């Protein structure tokens, strides 16, 4: 439901702003950029409130109810300023909600290292189902002759938020802090995050997320420059999400069988292959294979790292730690990675032809993920406690 809520609007939001509301490119980019700003602010708020003033479940219900109200209000807006501020508020709610969803799953899941992937797999299915069957069937791909149906996506997202809020109320209460307000600062989560092995995984998490931003910024224009039709770009990119479904279903088994280090290294190898195949280019088979590896790299590296960090949390620190991880991933890594990727695209664009030297562009994330592989190979040591936590 969480991914369904986001999948209903994220793929078509730029089209809604540009073609339905007729905003300029700068206005559209400014509105979409506030999601990164929200990712800086809202985790700090969420880490203080969640399980300290409100339980994770009640907080998630509140976030989805507020999201529904904001989305219904957004539906009625036609001017830039109110759309900007309402969408910013909506992103604040949804960034917190995404982290709370992960925390609640870990709260209620026995043997989370084994079972989290199988649960998270349904998030990918939810995203794909609404993005394809609504955006590309109901809306006809968001083409200009069907822009009148675009607001339906926002309404669907609001209704899904209400359904999700009601459903969360049916869940058993998430275990929270025994002392409701120990301090305003979430000291329990800070104690977890300052452990050397956790700091190392957080560094890895940041670097891999940084490299992923090159994919999100550069993939669509890269495929267009290679001659892919616009109608085929989204299906080819979704190959990674299809692969992600199978990866999520198997990540728990593989972690139990091989441990965190080997699984994370395999995920990084998939990323090396992905970016290398893009750098080589020239073959549709390479491009499709590289896109397929996106889901494998995301699951076996970033999701495995998420599970590893959570395995060192207790009920008092878990929710705030997940909020801080959102700050690291969707905030810092997204901001710096997107900025670096955009700057690299400008640097490698030919002034004469206007074409981008994507071989040089893709070599930057290739080098970053190779450094990650070296760091894990040399410095990451699994302790016996980490291995037994998988059982």
Rough shape? globular
Q: Structural class per helix/strand content? A: mainly alpha
The percentage helix is over 70%
And the CATH topology of the largest domain? Growth Hormone, Chain: A
**Beta-strand content:** under 5%
Report the span from N to C terminus.
Answer: 29 Å
Quick one: how many beta strands?
Answer: 0
CATH class of the largest domain: Mainly Alpha
Low-confidence stretches: 177-185, 387-391
- Give the topology string: H per helix, E per strand: HHHHHHHHHHHHHHH
CATH superfamily (homologous) name of the largest domain: MFS general substrate transporter like domains
Estimate the mean pLDDT confidence.
82
Structure notes:
Mean pLDDT is about 80; it is low at about 175-185 and about 385-390. It is built from 15 helices and no strands. By secondary structure, the chain is mainly alpha-helical. The protein has 2 domains: about 1-175, Growth Hormone, Chain: A (Up-down Bundle); about 185-390, Growth Hormone, Chain: A, CATH 1.20.1250. The protein has helices spanning about 1-5, 15-20, 25-50, 55-75, 80-110, 110-140, 150-170, 185-195, 195-225, 230-235, 240-280, 285-310, 320-345, 360-380, 385-390.
């Amino acid at each position: 439901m969480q991914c369904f809520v986001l999948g209903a609007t994220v793929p078509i939001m730029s089209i809604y702003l540009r073609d339905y509301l007729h905003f300029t490119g700068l206005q559209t980019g400014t509105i979409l950029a506030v999601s990164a700003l929200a990712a800086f602010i809202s985790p700090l708020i969420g880490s203080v409130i969640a399980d300290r003033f409100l339980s994770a479940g009640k907080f998630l219900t509140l976030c989805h109810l507020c999201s529904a109200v904001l989305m219904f209000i957004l539906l009625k807006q036609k001017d830039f300023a109110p759309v900007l501020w309402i969408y910013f508020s909506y992103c604040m709610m949804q960034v917190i909600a995404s982290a709370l969803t992960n925390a609640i799953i870990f709260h209620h899941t026995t043997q989370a290292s084994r079972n989290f992937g199988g649960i998270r797999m349904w998030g990918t299915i939810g995203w794909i189902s609404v993005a394809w069957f609504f955006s590309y069937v109901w809306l006809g791909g968001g083409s200009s002759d069907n822009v009148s149906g675009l607001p339906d996506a926002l309404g669907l997202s609001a209704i899904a938020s209400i359904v999700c809020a009601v459903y969360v109320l049916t869940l058993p209460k998430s275990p929270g802090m025994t002392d409701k307000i120990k301090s305003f600062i979430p000291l329990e989560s800070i104690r977890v995050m300052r452990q050397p092995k956790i700091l190392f995984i957080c560094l890895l998490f940041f670097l891999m997320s940084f490299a992923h931003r090159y994919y999100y910024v550069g993939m669509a224009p890269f495929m267009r420059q290679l001659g892919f039709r616009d109608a085929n770009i989204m299906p080819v990119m979704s190959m990674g999400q299809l692969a992600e479904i199978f990866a999520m279903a198997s990540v728990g088994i593989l972690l139990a069988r091989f441990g965190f280090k080997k699984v994370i290294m395999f995920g990084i190898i998939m990323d090396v292959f992905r970016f290398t195949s893009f750098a080589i280019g020239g073959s549709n088979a390479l491009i499709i294979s590289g896109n397929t590896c996106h889901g494998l790299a995301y699951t076996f590296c970033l999701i495995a790292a998420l599970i590893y960090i959570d395995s060192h949390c207790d009920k008092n620190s878990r929710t705030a730690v997940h909020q801080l991880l959102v700050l690291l991933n969707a905030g810092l890594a997204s901001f710096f990675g997107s900025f670096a990727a955009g700057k690299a695209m400008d640097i490698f664009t030919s002034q004469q032809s206007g074409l981008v030297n994507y071989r040089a562009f893709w070599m930057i994330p290739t080098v970053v993920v190779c450094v990650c592989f070296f760091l894990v190979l040399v410095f990451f040591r699994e302790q016996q406690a980490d291995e037994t936590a998988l059982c």
